[in-house]
Amino acid sequence: MQIGFIGLGNMGAPMAINLVKAGHSVKAFDLSAEAVAKVVAEGGQAASSAQDAVQGAEAIVTMLPASQHVEGLFLGQGGQGGLLENISKGALIIDSSTIAAATSQKVAQAAEAAGVGFIDAPVSGGTGGAIAGTLTFMVGGSDSDLERARPLLEKMGANIFHAGSVGAGQTAKICNNMLLGILMIGTSEAIALGAANGLDPAVLSEIMRRSSGGNWALEKYNPYPGVHEHAPASKGYAGGFGTDLMLKDLGLAQENALAVKASTPLGGLARALYAAHSLGGHGGEDFSSVIKLLQKQG
Ligand code: NAD
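A: This is the predicted complex of the input protein with nicotinamide-adenine-dinucleotide.
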């Protein structure tokens, strides 16, 4: 299949590479030439612009930071035309960015008017899952669009859930990330308490992993340096899932909670703690660096 792939950051590059490895023709674009080079090195083609990436594509995959990037790209801004004008009728957009459900719906509506299909397909599984092709996709859209996307999603992920109509994938995603944001703080708090009492963080983590406190961070993404060799914590909190991206997701969860009058007190507190951590200069570090807020420094 001819695929246009836009947004080749920590997640997008390995996802695009998995499509290339599966034999698809991938034309890749990112504002960073360095990011494009990673995909080209694995057999992808470099697009000179987003317009070039989507020209003649049967499917367009986007993996961009936030709502404004997705809306700006497809619908345009400041009088500039959006990318929808350049996409062939009958093509399908698969947006895997985590953005507001309302933005997904707005872009899907415009896409439908242009004769282009759209699904929101945000992911979970981190950069490790993106590299291994084991992501979980949470899809919002029609049955038929999901079936068209499925062969591509299967090359990038291991679990595909149909959450409902357009926007439902995003709603599932912010529920999951609100839980992830809270549990990373809880896990960090427990490890910091043990370490302050002289416990070995690795031993304590293993005890909790096999006890009733066991969770995903203790399994795969320990916030304490050196416990998991491949976790961002062991690489100076580089790569992974940025604090500012977690902050964005917790903001989306709070906006949504306000709209539906849901009570999400821990989600609100988690958002405030990641905001303080970001203000402390850690916005670009992996979100597990939030443990620094809870540890004695120096
Ligand atoms: P990232 O910041 O590493 O990458 C985003 C990329 O988009 C960058 O390379 C940037 O140059 C590019 N970009 C921005 N605007 C662009 C434009 N107009 N045209 C072309 N390229 C553009 O972010 P990431 O960690 O890859 O996350 C991407 C999305 O996936 C976010 O919505 C995030 O919330 C979500 N997500 C991330 C993770 C994770 O573990 N990193 C996990 C699940 C979901």
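The mean pLDDT is 97. The domain at 2-165 is CATH 3.40.50.720 (Rossmann fold).
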